[in-house]
Write a structure and sequence with these properties.
This protein is 28% helix and 27% strand. The protein is α+β, with helices and mostly antiparallel strands. Bound molecules: 6-O-phosphono-alpha-D-fructofuranose (P6P). InterPro entries: FBPase_C_dom, FBPase_class-1, FBPase_N, FBPtase, Fructose_bisphosphatase_AS, SBPase. Its EC number is 3.1.3.11, 3.1.3.37.
């Protein structure tokens, strides 16, 4: 497991985000977009801990009931990206926004501002997921073309897991926070290059096992081989644990009555890019999730992320049922 370099949240000894981006020779326009996402997530980290998580009796463009914090998080990200000259944005909370094409914008960002917000009231960890693509298109693309992707985890600590095309590994940054929501700074504290075999499993969409025999057999295999169950229902911490622990498997399969619910643009592709950069494998049942054509912002897919053997087991036992959307 990676050696962490911080003793307390206020005394991390890693490189500051800006220095780390420069040391890794990240192109300035990509660096600007990445830093905008870090700034937005820092603000959301504060708001998640202070804003109301009441339902606001309104629904997003996809019919999901929204919480005040959903809308707040979406707004914070959009504002930070607009200020940094992004070409286009697409949020899982609303129909794609085509921001005015900025004269110096080179990237477009798709994001799920607060994934798992339905479990905020239980005080479970939630997160932000984002993918940064070159150019101004957010459809007619695949995860293979990603320039960068990240996961921010709002848990007991706020951390960001980030992968950048051309920079080896997945990287963890800690928000060294004075908890004022204004003065915290991001420092690099760990890097991940491999996901080994290990008996930790996070089985999503469990109801799909009722009419997906392959999935039922896979769950039976995990149980009879004494795997550790580690599942909260929040995709961000549930997949991030596999990077940090360097082992295990997360899956969210489909069935005729429990269709694929995770969206490729906002969740599956950015997470696949990050996990594969961190040494994991990914699959939608027969191929890497990075090869799924993103023909619309709403394309959904089953997915699996984990060590090579665990992903292979998923492909052999679950595969791509003909009903998977
Ligand atoms: P299930 C949360 O709403 C979410 O989109 C993901 O964060 C999470 O992995 C999934 O749904 C949970 O789905 O069917 O396992 O409860």
């Amino acid at each position: 497991a990676p050696k962490r370099r911080f003793t307390t949240v206020m005394a991390a000894s890693g490189a500051a985000l800006e220095d780390w981006l420069m040391n890794n020779e990240v192109k300035s326009e990509l660096s600007t977009t990445i830093r905008a996402m870090f700034a937005a997530c820092k603000e959301i980290s504060y708001k998640v801990r202070t804003a109301s998580c009441d339902k606001v009796a309104c629904f997003n463009d996809f019919g999901d009931e929204q919480l005040a914090i959903d809308i707040l998080s979406d707004k914070v990200i959009f504002e930070n990206l607009t200020n940094c000259g992004t070409c286009a944005t697409a949020s899982s909370e609303e129909v794609p926004k085509e921001v005015p094409i900025s004269e110096n914008g080179s990237y477009s960002v798709a994001f799920d501002p607060l994934d798992g917000s339905s479990i905020i009231d239980t005080n479970f960890s939630v997160g932000t997921i984002y993918g940064i693509w070159p150019g101004s298109k957010l459809t007619g693309i695949t995860g293979r073309e990603l320039s960068a992707s990240g996961l921010c985890i709002y848990g007991p600590r706020t951390t960001m897991s980030l992968a950048i095309d051309g920079v080896e590994g997945a990287h963890e940054f800690l928000l060294m926070d004075d908890f004022s929501g204004r003065h915290g700074s991001w420092v690099h504290v760990a890097e991940f290059f491999s996901v080994a075999e290990g008996k930790l499993f996070a089985p999503g969409n469990l109801r799909a096992a009722q009419d997906n025999d392959g999935y039922k057999e896979l769950i039976d295999y995990y149980n009879s081989n004494k795997y550790q169950l580690r599942y909260t229902g929040g995709m961000v911490p549930d997949v991030n644990q596999i990077l940090v622990k360097g082992k295990g498997v997360f899956c969210n399969p489909a069935s005729p009555t429990a269709k694929a619910k995770l969206r490729v643009l906002y969740e599956v592709a950015p997470i696949g890019f990050l996990m594969e950069a961190g040494g994991a494998k990914s699959s939608e049942g027969k191929q890497s999730v990075l090869d799924i054509p993103i023909d619309s912002t709403e394309v959904k897919s089953q997915c699996c992320f984990g060590s090579e053997n665990e992903v292979k087991r998923f492909e052999e036992m679950v595969g791509v049922p003909d009903f998977a959307e």
